[in-house]
Queue: 2 jobs
Job 1
Amino acid sequence: MSKAIKVENLSKAYQLGDFGTGTISRDIERFWARMRGKEDPFLKIGETNDRTQKGSSDVVWSLKDINFELEQGDAVGIIGRNGAGKSTLLKVLSRVTFPTTGSVKVKGRIASLLEVGTGFHPELTGRENIFLNGAILGMRKAEIKRKFDEIVDFSGVERYVDTPVKRYSSGMYVRLAFAVAAHLESEIMIIDEVLAVGDAEFQKKCLGKIGEVSQGEGRTVLFVSHNMATIQKICKRAILLKNGKLMQIDETNKVIDQYVSEKQDIISEYNFEPPADNGVGYVTKISILDDEDNFAGEIFMGKPWKVTIHFRILTSVSNFIIALGMQNLYELPIRTTWSIPQSYSPGYYTATFTEDQIYFTTGRYKLVIGLSIGKHSIQHIDKDVHLNISDIVEHMDESVITSDGIFLNNMNVVIENIN
Amino acid sequence: MSTTSVKEHWDIEITPQNNLLDLKLKDVWHYRDLLVLLVRRDFVSFYKQTIFGPLWFFVQPVITILMYTIVFGGLAGIPTDGIPKPLFYLAGTIIWNYFADCLTKTSTVFKDNAAMLGKVYFPRLIMPLSIVLSNLIRFAVQLVLFIAMLLFYWFKGVTIAPNLYVLLFPFIVLLIAAQGLGFGMIISAVTTKYRDLTFVVSFGVPLAMYATTVIYPLSEVASKYHNYSWLIKYNPITELIETFRYGFLGKGGFDWQLFSYSAVVTFVILLIGTVIFNKVEKNFVDTI
């Protein structure tokens, strides 16, 4: 197969801070250095783009020495945390901005969808905007005319096609805009997270269209998303960026594994100080584990998980209960589980709650832990302990990919012929 | 993988530097439909949701020359080479407005369209070109007004003697557009980083009109401020307005040397504008 994109030593520097009176003297210095054939004095001290640390220079490399090649017909996902350089890479590839060093070589036409509805004019009608937007994206008028009915059909706004788009609902606006972009005839498509718009049904339609474009029509697709499930669904290969550097380019599942293992900002173990006014018992530690007993900041969607609660008993107690509750982001209780009331002598214990019956959809859930003797509460922890169900599934299974509702478990469906 | 020495063909190469004189006209040609649609957008959105619609194109110059006639013609008593005052002012105003509109709109082209230019690639030159063309339509409409007024005075019996220099009209329009475009591109490029020039444009352009022969004839300056008349004379717009008036109305004068001078200045400005624009268009997204 032939190559579609070749990226060589691509770097892009950005200047931080404000432009003001001070900038002009620096510009002059820069100009003077270049006149003498010297290197730009302000680019030498570039640093990697780690926004959590304060750097010594105000030039950062948003992309640094990126090299990769893509074959024609590849569908490649670009993943990385916020600020990793994903959007900058897309911007350079779509020629919106240019690299500081290095080069990109491309075969065929590029259509970039960094945003839907670029150039839509609110005063113009849907029809007029289809033509304008199509032309901005590089289509010829005849081409748009040929596809006009298809575009309107896909968008589902036939009735409003001669109404100014300023009277559209935001959903209709986005539908129309995506419809235009989806009908571009380019060899390479670059798509940023534009799909995070519109209703679920339309999102599905868009995803289907993108899949069709890459697999069915053999076009090259570059796709940025934070939604791993979508990337897994569409892309065979993926690129992992971190602080502007390319960390890995490989099969999607491998790259996602690497990405997940690198997530440091999610805690899987919580330690607690002994409370001052408690003479009976208290929680010392809470750990969240996956089904193989590994500490897991994130649980793959559709996999079992465990919560182990370490607690200490100070005096002999009877009727002692440990309870675990789960709440969604709106603090709505989803479920509560108790241990059987029991007697304990002083010492250290662990209680492990295993969830292997119900699978929750992706999201962040709050865990609430309570210790009590009968109905008398001893300790109540309802802050800071979170369980993260990731949007990544370990094995691609069509039935798993849904984010509607709270539970993933399928119901039993029986179909009978009753003629 | 085998290393083949065959040089591969690539359609697009993205590199940090590009040829500053390369206008990528081939690319522009491919996007010609966009150019037409942008012009149409400007034209249509201008009068959407108005009652008078395109009639508004007439209102502005009519009121302007009415004011000029009262203030400069009546109160100040500035002579107009024997041409009926409204006709004299209209001739100057439509040319000057075309220049000023091209310049001011082009000078903010990056800022006004930052959202769009930051999201999608198309030859950047399309934007200023669409401005020049949009304003050309407005100019054409106003020219109709001018011709109508000319005929009105002609039927009234005023001696108006159009001559062969009318044939220079297309060149005048071209030169005006090129100058507006050139100046505009220079300013637009600088303002992507430093906004200071936008202030200069907002008060400078209306003032610059008084340094051009819009409300007075060149002959008047020559007789009143003989020592300083060169300032007005070597304003590259002056001779274009003078030629326009001379060709259509038969009053004033024409000077081959001054006309050539205007053309050369225009060319230089356009060249500088293009180079600067080409340099800035690549990275303005990062600084605007």
Job 2
Amino acid sequence: MEFMIQLEKLTKRFPGQMAVDEVSMDIPEGEIVVFVGPSGCGKTTTLKMINRLIEPTSGSIFIDGEDVTHMNPDKLRRRIGYVIQQIGLFPHQTIATNIATVPRALKWDKDRIAARVDELLELVGMDPDVYRDRYPKELSGGQNQRIGVARALAADPAVMLMDEPFGAVDPITRERLQSEFLRLQDEVQKTICFVTHDVDEAIKMGDRIAIFGDDHKIQQFDRPETILSNPENEFVEDFLGSGAALKRLHLRRVRDVDLTSWPAASLDEGRDSLRRKLEEAEGYSFLLLVDDRGRPSRWVSSRDLDRSGEDMSDRGLPAAALVEPQGTLHDALDEMITSNVGCAIVVDKQGVYQGVVDIDTVMTAVNTLREELRGRLAVGSWHAVPSEAVEEARS
Amino acid sequence: MSVTSTDPQLAGPRTDEAEEAPTSALGRLLRDPGRAWSYVGIPLIVLGSWFAVYRWVSGLELDSIEQRWLNAERVTRSVVEHIQLSLIATLFVVGIAVPLGIMLTRPFARRLTPIFIGIANIGQAIPSVGLLFFLALPALLGIGPRTAVVGIVAYCLLPVLRNTMVGLDQVDDKLIEAGRGMGLTTGSVLLRIELPLAVPVILAGIRTALILTVGTMVLATFINAGGLGDIINGGIVNNRTPILLTGAVLTAGLALLIDWLAGIAQEVLRPRGL
């Protein structure tokens, strides 16, 4: 396996205080490694030592095999993308100038910079013609965050450091930005160190997670599923919180599990036909009605069907609790609990009914996850994880 | 407006509002009639009062003393001297205080800050007349324009020095960290990030210093350095109200006009996007 970043016994001692204590870590190319831990555990200090914003007291840093511990820090940093908390866009510069910061420092020529700026704006889903000449204050928090990422990617660095990049946006936007960023990462395949204090974010974003402890050392460094099912020590267990089993559901997408097909029928099929279908569907007390475009509309029971009249559009219960295939089982479970019927309806992008996720689906998924992990742990450390498993965990 | 984003939340309504905000200095002025009035009003008032004094003096029958003071050649010379002295003094103030302020906000010189601020404080705390007379002692600089400039510079250093430091200090550390973290050198961070963001505060300091200079330069007359103080003092010494009034109105008007110009400069030079 190719390691992009290697830390060797990296230590930082501030006067009278230990910050990072002999941290060693090998970070494979193209992966997101999340540093997580309580405040003051040294995660941010470790991150900032990688681009030498903080000079290590001892230890070494290798990037792509090269010892950069004593390299000119300015030159080093131009090779490393950097996204900080609150984004740190320069308010007096236009979006284009902000993005061009590193290319300008690298003395690219004007045309190349302009082309790169447009390319990056497209990459993060913003129209260059609209946004190029705007100022950061004219954009929303989420848009500024995207610009922050675009700026970090400007000179196409192999390595990116992100210090709580989604800390300053509201929860809904954060969720969206996280997913967007993961999609972007599939495209750009950077090696990323990502600091957060939010365990859920760590599980969602990380190919691997490094949990830092109060003793300024790494407590556990492994894949999220392994950490969740097999916490190294009490500290990790406590830090993950009581809901570790529940959190593991973040790791499975709805599209990865076998959906249950619930008996469904069309809204305008006629009462007799519907009643017959419900009788045929043994063990189901509700029938799912879909509209003419295949979108879930109502849940009806036999009692609802006994009422006279052919119009079904306001009978029974509304078909709520929808999830999309790229949602996680955690999302599905959440919907399921609030649902009338005890299952989450899976719909595709157009809202067309695909199947349902019920509690049995979730249980089966949990069991397979657990077995997979047991198998993997038996093989040994994460070094031995085959790349197919990496792919699987990522999707 | 075409937004490629498929995401209405992120594309946000804020952009629409921002589109209206005029970004040019002129646009900003035109949007705010009250502000626009103050930009036209000040020169009108100054020119009006100058004209009124001129009309009044022209209508008077001037005696020989008054004629000696109130003629075009004499008044013009004083005005030009006054402006020259003030501009030279301000150039020195800016040339000394801004670099000093930049230096004192660098980490290596932080410890020196109290010393320099202390010196600048003394310069401003001593009454300006006293400072001028002291500097004009034959053992020091002697009388003349040079002494006037040195004295006024010492007197006006503090506002620019302090504003430069405050302006640089108020720049968000996160921005500096972002710049450094992306590989900008300390010099680039200073030039591209810190100074542009500190410009409004520094300019405010320079504006204060300019007005202080123009006002205080009246004292230059007492050490034989010329300026509008000559006319004012001539009016006092000879007990001639028209002379005194002409000098006073010219000085006050000049201070107002320079403040007005500085205000416009501030508006134009203010970084966009803030």
